[in-house]
Write a structure and sequence with these properties.
By secondary structure, this protein is α+β, with helices and mostly antiparallel strands. It has one domain: SMI1/KNR4-like. Helices cover 26% and strands 17% of the residues. The protein has a four-stranded antiparallel β-sheet. The two termini are 16 Å apart.
């Protein structure tokens, strides 16, 4: 299923929520291919609408959920500059680092972590630059 291209308002809402601009290569890809549902594994997520996870989330809604405090784990803190963009299963997500110039793709794998764990170890750079990764989609 092809989802309609994200609107300018939708892109602006993502950017204002996160506080960073989306990379032009990502915006261009969504303009060409639609609002998610393409790419590896379960497909890129829609930005604020479009393709959803199996739990009904878009990239923006996941970002908002991940940024909520966890009363059971005060050590939990989602990096404000990471936008989850691809769910690959087992709670693992690929995210775009919007604060770095090359926008590396960061893998978030929460498996094996929990209250009191070192959450920073759940994040690792999977691809040092966004554009070559997008080119393979």
């Amino acid at each position: 299923m092809r989802f309609p291209t994200p609107t300018n308002e939708e892109i602006a809402e993502v950017e204002s929520t996160i506080g960073y601009s989306l990379p032009s290569a990502l915006v261009e890809l969504y303009a060409k291919r639609g609002n998610g549902g393409f790419g590896p594994d379960y497909g890129l997520l829609g930005l604020g609408s479009g393709h959803l996870t199996d739990q009904g989330d878009t990239a923006l809604s996941l970002y908002r959920i991940f940024n909520e405090p966890d009363t059971e784990d005060p050590g939990w803190a989602w990096p404000k500059h990471l936008l989850p963009i691809l769910h690959v299963g087992c709670a693992i997500h690929y995210c775009i680092d919007l604060a770095s110039p090359d926008n590396p793709v960061v893998k978030f794998d929460p498996n094996g972590f929990g209250p009191g764990g070192d959450w920073q170890a759940a994040f690792s750079v999977a691809f040092p630059k966004l554009e070559p990764w997008l080119g393979g989609l």
